Structure formats: C-alpha cells, structure tokens
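Thread: quick sanity check before group meeting

JM: Hey all, I'm pulling together slides for Thursday and realized we never actually wrote out the predicted structure for the chain we discussed last week. Dropping the sequence here so it's in one place. If anyone has concerns about the input, flag it before I start.
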Amino acid sequence: MPSAPPIDSTRPDLALLIPSYAGGGGERVALFLARTLVESGLRVDLVVACAHGELRDEPLPGVNKVELGAITEILAAPAWIRYLRHVRPRCAMSMIHTANFSSGIGARFDSDVPIIVNLRIALQCDPGAQWWFRKWFGFGIERFLYQRAARVVGVSQGVADEAAELFSLPPNKVLSIPNPRRSRDASMQIAREHEPWFEKPVVLGVGRLAAQKDFATLLGAFAEVVPERDLHLVILGKGLQRAALETQARELGIADRVFFSGFVPNPEAYMRRARLFVLSSRNEGFPGALIEALEAGAAIVSTDCPFGPREVLDEGRWGQLVPVGDAPALAMAMAAELERADVGHATRREERADWMRRYDPHVITDRYAALVRTVINESGDAAHPR
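JM (edit): ok, ran it. Output follows.
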C-alpha cells in the first residue's frame, strides 16, 4: 500500500468559482458564502474569472481572492484547470452558468479535485443561458460534464429536480439549498428621503433590466393600476433594457410616475418604505429579492414562474401568485394588495418570521459547510478541513 501523501495545511478547503464581481444575486450569495465559510473554519479561495463588477471592493476578511484574468467568462476553463492543477483545493464549487461550464470541464479534465456545481436558475427557460451549443446539442454537453460532479446543488427544489432529469443524475448527487436572507448590519444602505418618488406611495421592483425580469409586463400592469391611485413605480437595477423600458413608460403615459434608480447593493430600506413589492419575472431559480421583501415585511405580488416564488411564498400564503406575462392579472393582484394596505391590512409578522428561519444565514452556511466537508471526506483527501 502506498503511503498517504503529506498534509499540506496551505491548501484551500474550498475554491469557489464565479464569472465576475457583477452585482447579481448569484455573485452576492457567493461572496456571502466565501465570508461565512471562512468564519465556520474552512480555508476558502474566491476564484474570479473576469475581475470586473460592482462587488469587486466588497470586504472579504480571511478570504483569498484569486483572479484568473480570463478574456471572457465563457473562456475561463483553461485558466481554471491551471488553477486546479497548481493549487489542488480539496473541493471546488462553481456558481452561475458560465462558471459552471468551466467547472464541469474541470471535473472532466482534473478528476482529483471533487467539484460541486451550483445551479441558480431554471435551465430550460433561461434565455440568458441558451448558448450556441444548446441549439445543436440540447443539454447533452452539460450532461456529459456535470455527471462527473461530486454534487449538483439547486437553489430551489424545482431547480434541483429539473437538473436531476436533464442531466440524468442519481438522487444521491442532487440536493437543494436555498439562498440565505440578508443579514442586517450597520452597512445597510438607507433609502434617500429626498428622492422625489417618496412623495407618493411606492410600488417597488428589483432586478436586472433584462428580459428575464420582464419589467415590461410590470409597466403594463402599473399603467392599468395608476389611474385609480396616486402612486409611483420604482425599479432598482441596471441593464441593457433600460432605454426600451423608458420608451415604453413614455408610450404608456406613465413616465412621470416611473423611476429607474439604478443598482442598489442593499435594497432592504427601500422595501421597508414601499407599499407593495412586485416580482414580474419570466423565470428564476430562487429570487433573492423575494426573500428580502419577506424579511422587510412588504406586501408581495409575484409571477408563478419556474422556479422559486411558489416555494418562497409557501404556495401563495405570503403573497399573491399570478401567471407569467399576464399584465391584466398582475394589475388585478396589485390593486387587491394595495387595497388591503390602504385599509390597514396587518402582516402576520410572527408567522412570517417563523417561516423565514429556514433562510437564516447561519442555517444556510452550516448546510454548505457540511456539504463541503462531506465531499472532501468522500474524496479520501488526507488533510481534512478544520
């Protein structure tokens, strides 16, 4: 029997791969996990394919940042494989589809490092992930890559079930771990009181200005609701569709009631001031903004899109669910929730708080820490994580 390799205490327990420092939900969760997994006793490398984005300067005490310097996110696989071979992390995990693709290639070309693939969104209806090879091969390439992963994590049960079916994965390799709710701290960005839209009750939307979030349907629904009420619609986020959405607002005659306020790192204070939060997405994985709205105690209306809203809202217990892309149905639900708010509808705060405990940051961190340790132990690595 060959002797066990010597223990190298400098090796990271986890290498966490993301495409960039963009301010999306997946990147924010990755930075949260990097920070809290270090606090739990793991050594963590945050590996970033392209070193740009709003979150680049986020403080991550104890986390070792590694920037691969890839030309583009989708072409990061060679640099990622070089990192795996040189650093030899005991476990690796990727988040967001471009990073997952690189990670899957790494699982095939460097099988000594066990890899966890973390899926953040419904795959079959995600236009942002419909790469050229899917048009020719469907999900065959990803099935080939991800079948070598140690685990595949879906951010919701729907995403996990979809992955098991699409990639022909055995049940023991697939699990679901949701996003955590945001921890409250002194760095919470305060909603600016002088904003003109605070002069009237506010309907709030949060997310990238992209087709997936379907703010066009929200604008159409708001146009139906606003003649009966003195309201403003505020959308927090940035993206390529801003000009088109501003044009739509002008055409609907509501431009003076709609405010695009850009990217806000922590929208909790805005949600606490809003009369109503609306999620209009065509598809999701597990919408972080919905968790934040629940935490803030906001009244909620959401599309019943795949996947996440129905799970987060407990089958509609904590907010109305409406069909995707149906502006009249969305308008009716918005009007009903606004009416309840006007007559002093009281949120069942204690029951809602009890429901939210499953998304507690410590609970989510413990689940990921246990997963990483389990995968390392299964790999037979001589040096177990602390």
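AS: nice. Residues 115 and 149 are 5 Å apart (CA to CA). The chain is about 40% helix and 15% strand.
JM: adding both to the slides.
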